[in-house]
Design goal:
heterodimer, A: 255 residues, alpha/beta, Rossmann fold, six-stranded mixed beta sheet, three-stranded antiparallel beta sheet, 9 strands, 23% strand, B: 269 residues, mainly alpha, MetI-like fold, 11 helices, flat
């Protein structure tokens, strides 16, 4: 299943946030959305997953998600959004029990996603006992449990320290390499974008428009920390964004 | 040389970051109680405090023992406890339900919040005559009074707690396609539980106050009746014995809520 964003416009009151966003999200690829703060990239992600209604335009699902998919558009949030009163497996079970999956079948799904995210030993732990990186692993496991057609990742690594971020990036790459998934990955971190993105969509400052789409052909598994060609791409992205970011930073907020 | 003199005048940096962090200090509360009682005992024994001002704690204890051995204690306490339990359970459960409805539905909120604000400050004791007409002179009016008094603070605490449930968790539930009922049951209710329980702490204390008030106005048995009778006879020992029972009841209720909090809210950091 792929997604097509058709002329998305969005405004809060008089303030235009997004303007004329036309974008294809191809199946089995990771599309990164980058842009200066306040450019509406997270808003766009909420619109894609139906958590916010755009002022104009529409998001189209092209094709059917696979039959075992419980929740086609599944988010991974920056602040993890785990229920603190449920254990790791309880948090995963939360999203499948509503689909009537219980007992042995639920057990199998939970065990599988815990193994894939290396969390098997933590199944009974409460979120408060886990580090930030572990919490985000649980959120990833929860997302995998519903077998999503598209993962919508809202700055999933931004709340983590830089070492943990590296570890989780490796995990995400390993997950994708085993079974390629479709994802929209919002980030303000260009290093993450060039590591994880098959294409990188650069948004302008508010009102957000697509400024440029950069395609990276190097396979994810071959990318690693500090690659010279990735650094060059990152530099290119930064030159695209620098003036915008500075202008956005100096803007007064009329909120 | 300036360098050397600077080195000579080295001084340790003083710690200044302490305090403002309450710690659990066991037994301190019990010691405060014991000190006050001992002071009262010593004062009344020596005659420093006259018997009319304060009864001797040892006499109060004796009265308490009489009450216990005569079997009247259980008669009073049993009736009072059942009134408290039924009234508070009614009021708290209706209060929690209405509070959740207010928290979830805008129309119910718009309609009921002003009403709750209007009945909150009414001294419920003033309505006892009305309740006697509505629910009868015996137990009904007492249940109603206690229920009514627990209802309002519970409603306010509950809808405040529902308002404070982390919206990102609710969005998460929606993004995973959870049904409305699942979101309420699995996200809103547990998330509101800390606020509901701390509201119950206040509501139940109010329930005890109203219990006594109801029993003072029309009951043969019950702690309130016992205290009223002692008071009108100026029997300070019995008065204090009754008051001590009430205090113990308050401590007990609060301890029960603490236990519930520990069991239900272990997930809190």
């Amino acid at each position: 299943m792929k997604l097509h964003l058709n002329k998305i416009d969005h405004r809060y009151g008089d303030m235009a946030v997004l303007q004329g966003i036309d974008l294809e999200i191809p199946s089995g690829r990771i599309v990164c959305l980058v842009g200066p703060s306040g450019c509406g990239k997270s808003t766009l992600l909420r619109i894609i997953g139906g958590l916010e209604r755009p002022t104009g335009g529409e998001v189209l699902q092209m094709g059917e998600p696979s039959s075992d998919c419980l929740n086609p558009l599944t988010y991974i949030f920056q602040d993890f959004a785990l229920l603190p009163w449920r254990s790791v497996e309880g948090n995963i079970s939360l999203v499948i029990e509503d689909h009537g999956i219980r007992g042995a079948q639920a057990r199998a799904i939970i065990d599988d996603v815990l193994a894939r995210t290396k969390l098997t030993d933590f199944a009974k732990a409460l979120p408060k006992q886990l580090s930030g990186g572990m919490k985000q692993r649980v959120a990833i496991a929860r997302a995998l449990a519903v077998n999503p057609a598209v993962m919508l990742m809202d700055e999933p690594l931004s709340a983590l320290d830089s070492q943990t971020r590296e570890l989780l990036m490796d995990d995400l790459i390993a997950l994708w390499t085993r079974t390629p998934f479709t994802a929209v990955y919002v980030t303000h971190n260009l290093a993450e974008a060039v590591r994880l993105g098959h294409s990188i969509v650069v948004l302008s400052r508010r009102p957000g428009r697509i400024r440029e789409i950069v395609h990276l052909d190097k396979p994810l598994a071959e990318r690693s920390f500090g690659d010279a060609d990735l650094e060059a791409q990152q530099k290119h992205l930064w030159t695209l964004m620098r003036d915008e970011a500075r202008a956005a930073d100096a803007e007064l907020l009329d909120a | 040389m300036p360098d050397q003199s600077a080195q000579k005048k080295s001084r340790r940096v003083d710690f200044r970051g302490g305090g403002f962090a309450p710690k659990s200090r066991r037994w301190t509360g019990a010691i405060v109680f014991a000190l006050i009682i001992i002071a009262a005992e010593v004062g009344t024994q020596t005659g420093f405090v006259s018997a009319l001002t304060l009864p001797k704690p040892s006499d109060v204890l004796e009265t308490f023992q009489d009450l216990y051995s005569s079997g009247l204690l259980w008669k009073h306490l049993g009736l009072s406890l059942s009134r408290l339990a039924i009234g508070a359970a009614l009021g708290a459960s209706i209060g929690v339900s209405v509070g959740i409805l207010i928290g979830l539905f805008s129309y119910i909120r718009a309609g009921l919040v002003p009403l709750v604000a209007a009945i909150f400050p009414i001294p419920k004791i003033a309505l006892l005559p009305l309740f006697v007409i509505w629910f009868g002179i015996d137990e009904g009016s007492k249940y109603a009074l206690i229920a009514f008094g627990t209802f309002t603070p519970t409603v306010v605490a509950t809808y405040g707690a529902v308002d404070n449930v982390d919206r990102t968790l609710i969005r998460m539930g929606q993004s995973f396609g959870l049904s409305w009922l699942s979101i309420v049951r699995k996200i809103v209710l547990p998330g509101a539980m800390p606020g509901i329980l701390s509201g119950l702490r206040i509501s139940l204390a109010i329930a005890i106050i109203l219990l006594v008030a109801a029993e003072m106005l029309g009951a043969e048995f019950g702690i309130g009746a016992y205290i009223l009778e002692a008071g009108s006879l100026y029997d300070l020992e019995r008065l204090f014995a009754g008051v001590v029972i009430l205090s113990l009841l308050g401590v007990l209720v609060s301890a029960i809520i603490t236990v519930i909090e520990r069991r239900l809210l272990g997930w809190r950091t």
